[in-house]
């Protein structure tokens, strides 16, 4: 059986959820799109016509006292320079790493909810 990640879900109070939505749409160029009539409010964010990030409003969600074992979520992309420019322009701190064995640059940063993100740029040293 082959597995693929279908989507990730971030649940948070409405004000943080709107900040997270803006972050993913501005920084990673996701587009807000169709979301079925689910019982709660939220947003679905699309990349390449796929709803990869589901944002669910949960007023009772509170940040954890400590981070769990899930370290980060990774995306593959292109145009390293454009993302670095957006991150810098918007004051988002990031760390860069180059993997010579894969000829790939990686950027690491956090979204407004504290979710660790990695964006990989193959063939972009």
Largest sheet: 4 strands, mixed
Round the Cα radius of gyration to an integer and report it: 15 Å
Q: What's the CATH C level of the largest domain?
A: Alpha Beta
What average pLDDT do the residues reach?
Answer: 91
- How many domains, as an integer? 2
| Relative helix content | 10-25%
Secondary-structure element series: EHEEEEHEEE
Low-confidence stretches: none
Query: What is the CATH architecture assignment of the largest domain?
Result: Roll
Oligomer: single chain
Query: Per DSSP, what share of the residues sits in E-state strands of 2 or more residues?
Result: 35-45%
CATH-derived topology of the largest domain: 2,3-Dihydroxybiphenyl 1,2-Dioxygenase, domain 1
How many helices?
A: 2
């Amino acid at each position: 059986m082959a597995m693929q990640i279908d989507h990730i879900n971030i649940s948070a109070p409405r004000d943080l959820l709107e900040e997270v939505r803006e972050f993913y749409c501005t920084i990673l160029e996701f587009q807000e799109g169709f979301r079925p009539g689910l019982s709660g409010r939220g947003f679905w964010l699309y990349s390449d016509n796929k709803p990869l990030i589901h944002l669910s409003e949960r007023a009772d969600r509170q940040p954890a006292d400590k981070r769990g074992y899930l370290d980060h979520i990774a995306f593959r992309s292109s145009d390293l320079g454009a993302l670095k420019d957006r991150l810098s322009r918007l004051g988002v701190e990031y760390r860069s790493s180059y993997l010579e064995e894969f000829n790939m640059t990686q950027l690491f940063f956090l979204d407004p909810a504290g979710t660790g993100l990695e964006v990989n740029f193959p063939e972009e040293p």
